[in-house]
Write a structure and sequence with these properties.
The complex is a heterodimer of chains A (264) and B (283).
Chain A: H1 3-8, E1 14-25, E2 28-40, E3 45-49, H2 56-64, E4 71-76, E5 79-80, E6 88-91, H3 103-113, H4 118-131, H5 147-159, E7 165-169, H6 177-194, E8 197-201, H7 205-211, E9 214-219, E10 224-230, H8 242-263
Parallel strand pairs in A: 3-8, 3-9, 6-7, 7-8
Antiparallel strand pairs in A: 1-2, 1-4, 4-5, 9-10
Chain B: H1 2-12, H2 22-49, H3 59-71, H4 83-114, H5 116-129, H6 138-145, H7 149-173, H8 177-185, H9 192-224, H10 233-242, H11 246-274
The chains are: A alpha/beta (264), B mainly alpha (283).
The structure holds adenosine-5'-diphosphate and magnesium ion.
Chain lengths: 264, 283
Amino acid sequence: MAETDSLSAPLPIIEIRNVSKTFWLGEQKIEALSGANLEIRKGEFICLIGASGCGKSTLLRIMAGFEQPTGGEALMWGKPITEPGPSRGMVFQDYALFPWLTVRNNIAFGPKSQGRSTGEVKEICDRFIEMVGLQKFANAYPHQLSGGMRQRVAIARVLANDAELVLMDEPFGALDAMTRERLQDELLEIWERTKLTVVFVTHAIEEAIFLADRVVVMSPGPGRIDSDNRLTLPRPRDVASPEFNEIRRDLSARLHSHHGKKAA
Amino acid sequence: MVDVTSSAPAAEEAPPRKASLPHLGKARDFALAMIVPGLLLLLWYVATTQRWTRLIPTPAETAEYMVDFAVGGIYDDAFSATLHIHLLASMSRVYGGFLLAAAVALPLGLLIGRIPLARKTLDPFFQLMRPIPVTAWLPLSMILFGLGAKSAFSLVFLGAFYPILLNTIFGVKNVDPKLFEAASMLGCRGNAQFFRVVLPAALPSIFTGLRLGLGLAWFVIVVGEMTGVPQGLGAVIMDGRTLSRTELVICGMIIIGIVGYLSDRIVMMIGNHLLRWSPTHHG
Ligand SMILES: Nc1ncnc2c1ncn2[C@@H]1O[C@H](COP(=O)(O)OP(=O)(O)O)[C@@H](O)[C@H]1O
Ligand SMILES: [Mg+2]
């Protein structure tokens, strides 16, 4: 069915085909995702937004290979995603750094797991420590770092692992506004430089509009994909510009219409 | 450009500063710590010199006896200059029993904590045995091992065993599940996670168990050495009681206190170094 497509367009890096995910809490059935469809092209920056509980994390975790869909299929380069792997790196909201490893060794964890030589590991670490600006903190432990610095380490850790696809679950949600803005800028800069593919979950509309090529709006009960909005605003984007505000108003209306429907 | 990225993180958070006069702080901490022991010593001194009681010797007499016990030359009785013999005997039992307990409890704890089959087989048994106090084992261990060093050794072993076992199980069972996900997305999967995730994550808890175990080993040594061993600090205390030599009893107690304390400090220092990454593990 998709064969004719793949001749004309290149294979998408990620393809979510009619994916459903049902959890059981005892007798209670929770439809975290229902019939989700999404295609992601290499190099795209996708933001998933939606009210909490609409299945954003579940969708991301399926792409990561932490969860298996109960219906439909999740493909990477056309092959089913069956388990977590180095090609897909996850950046968690609460960092999930290894607290017993220094910044350098957290970043080295992936390359070491791949069996890289000591020299290569060192070279990779140096490169990514510099990329996220943590040279002075290379030998610090995570508990000695601020939230923003920890999230930089988490980002460097997946980049050092040669991840093609970076999955970020509300990565800046726990940070203060100034740090968040700085990290957004840095992330865009890294993304532009490295040609990564990013799927970024957020519940902040502004963050999504500031970052994304496409903003995918999800809605709850059951969790599903509601609309897929391509943004053509040139970067760097000015959050105070009329164009930005227009998009914000539009997306905000889409998001809140569901709240309204749910409440009614 | 370089400045922006390298100086910005530093401004985000200043690491906690040390007090500006660390030595003064240390001296004050020491003074505070000495208040209660000092008062106790004073009470002891007053009570014995004012003859409130004749049952215990004065601090000065005890100190004098301690010197004789350690190096001799004052009373020259059967206990003069024998401290090192008793101390060595007790220490070998404490550390021997402790190391044996660690050697058994650590692997068992790792098994029970990580492997459901091992947990289902062994956990109920250990839960059932655990409420039995070490002292309740004394008669049985005397029957099994006779009167002597083996009995003392086995009690120390039992005393140290449970804290190490339980804390090891707790540590390996309570690894943050996110860390397994992080490891597997970075390419470290299956058994490789045991050494790279489970063990380091459980280390603080394992260490707490070792420390408690060693403390308990010192705790039960007196009981262990009541079983008719000729040497050991517990034996000295028991002999002191039998011979009505209270100063001997007090000397034995003080030495156990001091050596147990020093032993704990050493373990703490090793722990603080190994666990310097852990924000909750500083003593
Ligand atoms: N492991 C799980 N077990 C049971 N229910 C779950 C599990 N993970 C998620 N859910 C449920 O699935 C729904 C979607 O969750 P999630 O994907 O985390 O939403 P979001 O990230 O958009 O807030 C929620 O109702 C949540 O309670
Ligand atoms: Mg979520």
